Each structure stands twice: as structure tokens, then as C-alpha cells.
Amino acid sequence: MSDTIPSAPPVRAPGKSGWPRPVTLVLLSGLSLTGLLFAGISRLEQDKLELAFQQRAHVRLWALKEGVDNAIGSLRAVNQLFASHMEVSREEFRRFTQPTLAYYPYVQSASYLRFIDAAERPAFEARLRGFQAEARLTEMRDGVAVTAGERARYRVIEYLEPLQGNEMALGLDTLYPAYGEAVRQHAYDTGLPAAGQLVALVEGPEPRVGVVISMPVYRYGAELASLAQRRAAVIGETAIVLRPADMIAKVFEAAGLRPNQGMSLNVYAAAANGQREQPLYAAAEAPSGQGTLPRWLYPGRAAPLRQSFDVAGQSWRVAAAPGDEVLLSDHLASLSTLALGLLLTGLGAAYMRTLSLRNRVIQRHVEERTAQLKELNRELLLRERAIESSTNAVVITAAQPGNPTVYVNRAFERITGYGAAEILGRSPRLLHGDDTEQPGAVEVRSAIREQRDGHAILRNYRKDGTAFWNEIYISPVRDEQGTVTHYVSIQHDITAMKAYESELHHQSMHDALTGLPNRLLLQDRLRQTITHSARKRHSLWLVSLDLDRFKFTNSHLGHKGGDRLLQAVAQRLQQAVRPVDTVARIGGDEFALMLLPEHGTLTPRAEQVQRVLEALAAPLLLDEAEIFLSGSAGIAVYPADSADPGILMERADIAMYRAKEMGGNNYQFYTAALNEQLGERLLIEGALRQALERREFVLHYQPQVDIASGRIVGMEALVRWQHPELGMVAPNRFIPLAEETGLIVPLGAWVLRTACAQALAWQRLGKGELRVAVNVSARQMAEQDFVQSVAAALAETGLAPHCLELELTESQVMNDIEHAISVMHELKKLGVKLAIDDFGTGYSSLAHLKRFAIDVLKIDQTFVRDVTENADDAAIVMTIIALASNLKLEVISEGVETRQQLDFLRQHGCQQMQGYYFSRPVPAADFLAVLEAHEARQAAERGAQADRMLGQAI
Hints:
- By secondary structure, this protein is of the alpha+beta class.
- It has an eight-stranded mixed beta barrel with strand order 24-25-27-28-29-30-31-32, surrounded by four helices. Strands 4-1-7-6-5 form a five-stranded antiparallel β-sheet, sandwiched between helices. Strands 13-12-16-15-14 form a five-stranded antiparallel β-sheet, sandwiched between helices.
- Strand 8 and strand 9 form a beta hairpin.
- Helix 1 crosses helix 6, helix 14 (550-576) crosses helix 15 (606-617) and helix 19 runs parallel beside helix 21.
- It is flat, with a radius of gyration of 44 Å.
């Protein structure tokens, strides 16, 4: 804006005739503006029509995709019947498919096709004739079903629904003639549905064109991890025949859509071998019956939509074109603008004519006021420049209904994206969008209604729809009489500050590593859910979940690897629960789950927790290493255990510790008795840290006996804790705690040195080269210097390496296979023997077993206990013995307690045993007595045998 007032235009001399120039300018400007507005509004109308067409077309495309997916979903459901049952009868197939065929009338048929070979053909045909007297194995030749020729393999339609009208297809061999086999083979290889090309149908309404979609049926229980496994496991397929035209019509009908409303719609299927597309469905534009306009007035048309979508591996294409009619109702705005523009142009020209006649009078007043206006203009320019230079938005609105905007500065335009011309005359409330009831908006309306100053924080929306936050100060502007004429508001954009506050709030309520809710958010959700559960009268479960042996795994993976492992665990936990449940990370390797009842029940089910544990136990590939995890879960129940979130979390933790004491990889519910057990646990944990220094640990030894000769060949060293107050503490009460706290490492080192020294002492007493077996924990194996510590113990005690046997449990070896194999090879270089303890209770495979550098397999006592009574245990024991024999390994049976067990083991070739039948674990002094008594008994038996032989010789 200039700081000077332009001079007034010259006044026409009195009496001079002619058409005034201002009138001409008004006419030209009015007509030009009318034309521009008409063109602009026409363009907006055309854009609106194009958008409406695209929306209608995409709605129909989406409905069609969903309808096709639902039809394929019915095939998946039929296929799942065969995947979840070892055998499916014809009647079960009929009952299962009837609802699907009724719900999807455009499904011509559902069938089960089975692979048989030539040898199975007679039996198969006999079964068919038992169902349908004239049935036989057929094939299609020249469109006629004839008896199938002799071939090595058939793919025969065994089940078919509905059978009526499709009898000819029962027993049909679909392998001949070969058609679409490449598509079927892809389905067999992937396990996914596959659609073939269009085929002619014998039955059904016109047009008789259909498409066959099939899915492979694999042998029940077969491994399907690899391509070769899937190909080997294919036994048949399930298939449905769809009538595409009926399906498309039914899909649109079900969605309440008219396919030809303002458009023409066609659906095509891609053809093979470069042929033309095959039409599936066509709907021409239907007349609207409304008033129309000539096309030349609105020549623009929306671009047609052509989009393809996938149907079980085949490509279908939808082609939608806008209608040709130009409806009067679609262009009312532009026509009204044209008429109104012409009218206003005429009125404006007439008005300018009147003004020209008054020009001389006005000119005189203009000259008188010019000087005053220049001064006022300078003052206004100064104020305007100050406002325009402000970084905060300034808005002035009139004190009228709706509060129309009369002024905005450049900062407003920059912040909101609205130009001054777009906002002037409109209420600033348009920035609120649909969020008109937010507290800040209510405060602004109250300030205007009460004609007072106001302050509020508002969530507004820019022209492009993005949200931003404004801090607004509003004040009334009064005239000389004190009447409020306007309101001025100063608006400060605080979006960045709000975003920072939101980020801080999110970080305070979520775990930074996994993104899961943290303890604070869990407690908040728990309080809200308890309130909701109280109203609904149903229960909820709070589950405390802790990873088993995570410290061992983390020490091996390192800090970054441990973080990635926790992130993978968090993802698995989220996938194992429903969206309504909550998974939170409490800290370290401790997680918590809030489980709600499933639909139709009042309490969660144990299967929900078991599903989480099973998901956690699945093998995990991390940095090209296969890791096996498990978790211990404790469950506290609302309202049975407490209605207080804090107490529920404490009691879930107590139950979780109980699950760990039970060996991990299980879940336990909280009971009142667990409080006492927790107190005992804390007492034992505190005493355990001082027990090694106070020399409260002792070793007991259990003999290992050669079954054939009855000779003691070794012993297993077992640690015991003789507490001065608690007495003899059982190993299952302190060993898990030692593992968890890391005390197992110094304790294991003490056991190793003590056992080696004791074995050497007995050898020096002339008891022979007895082998001493020492158990090794997972934490010990994870130590970087474990092999060096074994070598140091042998060097310190002087025991020969081949007299030391280290026992590794099957589960700890499988926890990190590559690391375990590496440690085994290093130990074998020292010359010590290695044994797999509790064999059969873990999950090792033969592929891994042959890589282990081991000497001994120890059969777990759980199999030996009922070996003479339980056929399954007997079979397992015999299998392990045979496996050890074939791998040239020694085998030792644990837990032998009866003569019958010993006889069974001797009969089936077990080499060594240990158990209560021969001796309990005893202290070192008592074990020496056992050795001496055994030697005396062996000497007496040898003497008696010598006497018998001498008597026979005489």
C-alpha cells in the first residue's frame, strides 16, 4: 500500500455528451469476471463429478474384490476341513459345504479331488459304486465322459456338492486331458488358492461360463516347511466352480450398489497365450430420467477407470466409463453464477452511470478531505505494517452474527494456508473443522457472548487438512459509545510445543526399546479395565511373564543382540494375543499381559496363556543362529485375587516365580500358599549367597554300575546344601535360584574341583580309574573361560582327563547349538568325556545329534520308571539304546529302582545304570564304604566261581 492518496480522476466538463468511461469499464470487468467465475465454477463442478465417478467406481471395485475374497475364503474353509482332520467322510464334506453353497449361490459346486495310482483304481471304483451304482472312473473326450484309460496316476473327483445336476463329474479324472496344470502345480508348491482360465459349464444359468479355483490338500500331519516337503505331501485338492457373472451381480446386489449408476461397467478376465481378454460382466449406463444440458456447454468428461486385481493368481480387469448425460442438477451453481453475473453487471453499469452524474459534487468534497485522508493514511500504514510484520496471526472479526472476518495478516495466511480473500467474510470457526465442541472453542464463544477478554488453546486445521495448535488471546473493540463493533484475536502457533509434550507423554508411558506399554500405562489400563469388568461382571487375568535363562542368552548375544531378541519377543507376544488384550514390558526380560475373556465367556481361558507360551517357544532365527526360548508365566485373577492393580501385579509375580521353580516353560495361578513359598524363596536366596563362603555345600556320590559285570565303573557327583538352620536343602529348591542369580558359576566351579580331587584320592587308594560325572549348567557353558576353567581344575587336582565326564542336559545344548558344538570340541581336545543327560526329554534332532562330540547318552528316569509296565516308555528306551549302539556311544540308564527294570535293561543291551536299586547318592566317606563292600562282594563272587570251576574240573 502506498503512503500517498492517488489524485482524483478528471471530471468531464458539464454538457459534454458520450458514454462514461467508468460505465464501460464496469461492463467489461463485470462480463470478464462473470466469464471467469463461470469457467472456474464449471471446473469445480467437473472436478466434483470426476471425484464422484472415481469414488463410485472404486466402491464397486472394492466390493468386487471383497466378494471374490469371500468366495475364495469359502474354499479355504473347505480346505481347512481336510487340513484339520486325518479322514473326512463324504457326509462330513456334504454337511460342511451345504451352508457355503447356500450362502454363495454363485458357487456352482464344491469338490474334493484325490490322487490315486493304478493299483488303487479298483478299490476306488468299488467305493464309488457303493455310493452311486453306475459310478466309475471317467475322463473327458470330445466333451463326453468315457471310461478312463489306463494310466499310472489319476486325479479323481471323489466328493462333489451339490451332486444333483453334477453326477457326470463324480469319478472324473481331471489329469486327462491336461489343462491348467502349471497353475495347479503352483498351488501345490505354495499351498495357496489358484484360479484357472474360464471354462464352459454344462449346467447352470446363462451365460454358462465358470472359473475353477483350487487349493492343494496335503497329507495330514505332514511337514510343509520346504518346497520338496509340500510336493511330497500333496494327496489331492479342494476346488470350487464360480459363475463370474452371477458372482459379480450378487456382490453388487449384496452391497446395495447399482453397477450402471451414472457409468458403464465391464469386467474382463485375462486370457492366456496373448489372446484377447474374455468378458465376464457388462452393465451399460442406465438413463437417469432427469433434465439434461447440451454437451457443448460442458465438454469435459471424467477419465475412465481401468484397474486390474488378482483372483487367486489370475488377473481380472474392471473398466468403468462415465456416462454421456450432462445433468442440469450437476451444474446449477455455474448456471446461477452466469445469470447472477450478468444481472449484477447490468446493475453495476447503471449505478456507475448515476455516480458519474454526481461526480462534480463528489469531486469538491474529495479535494476538501484529501489532506485529512493523507494524514490518516500515514497513521494507518504504520499500524498496518506493524501488524503485517508480526510473527503471530492477527484476526479482526465483526461483532455480528457468525463473526465474519474483516482482516487477517500475512502470518495468518502462512500459518493456516488460507489466503486473505478466502477467509474474509467467513467465520474463523471454519478452522475448527468438525471439532467445534473442544474446550478452547467453548471458551472463545463464551468470551464473545459475554463481550470480554478470553484466552484459549485450540486444535485447528489448515487448508490442506493438517491439524495445528493455536494459543489465542481475544479482546473486544469498542466505539466511542462503548459498543463492541469488532473482536481482535492474536494467535500463536504452538504445534511444535504440543508435539514435544505429546512425545514426552508417549515416552513416559511406553518402553523405548520395544514400543510396548510400560508399567505406568499398564497400571492405568488395568484400573480402567477393572472398572469396566466390575460393571460387566466378568473377570480378567494379569499375567506376569519372564523369559527363562535370558541372562545366559543375553550374555552370549551381547547387548545389541539381546535388544533385538527382546524386540522379537515383544512382536511374538503381540501376535499371540488379541487386539483387545494388552502386552507390556515391565523391565529387562519381564513382560506383563492383561487378558480379557473371549467373546461369549465371562473369564479368560488357559488356552490364551498356553498360546503365548507356545508362540514364545517356537525356534527364533537371530543373526543366522537358531535360538530356543521359553517363558514362565504367573497369573493373578480379578476379582478372585484382588481388585487393586498393584496387588494383582505383585501376586502375578509371585505365581511367576513359582512357575520358574517348577522348571520354567509353564504357567501357574496365584494361590495364598505361594506367599509363604515366596518368603521361603527370599530366605533361601539370601542364605545361598553366603553358603559357598561358609562351606555349607557338600557332594554326594551315586555309583554307576556296569550291568554285564556288576562292577562300579564310575559315580555321579551331586551337590547338596547342609544349611545350619534349614537342614538339608533339596537341590530343586536352590539350583534354579543359583541359575537365576548367577551363583551357579562359582558353585559349579567348586563342584568340579572337589569332585576331581575326590576321584583322584580314591584312585590313589587303589580303587581303580573310576570315572566321575559332573553336571554342567547352561550358565557355565556360556562363560567365555569355561573350557579354561575345566583345564585348570584338571591341572590343579591332577586327575586324568579321561576320568572326568561332563554331563550336559539336552535342553541347554539345544538352546544355542553352534556355541554348544564349539565348546564340546574344545572340551574333547582336553580329553574329557561328554554325556547328554536326560536324553529324550528335550527337542534335539538326529541331524544335530550326529554333530555333537559326545561319548555317553543318559536315559532319563521318567522313561525308566514305568519301562516294565508302559509300552511307550519301553519303546522309547529300546530306541535310545539302539540309537546309542549305532552311533558307537555308551548308554547309562538313570533311576533304576527294581530288579525288573534292571533285567529289562540288561536284556535290551543297556551298558550301565545308576539308581536306588544299587545305591542312593551318599557322602564321600559312605561312598568309600560302598566301594569297599562292592570289592569284597566281587572278590567273594570270583572265589565262589573259582571253587565251582575247580569242582567241575575234579
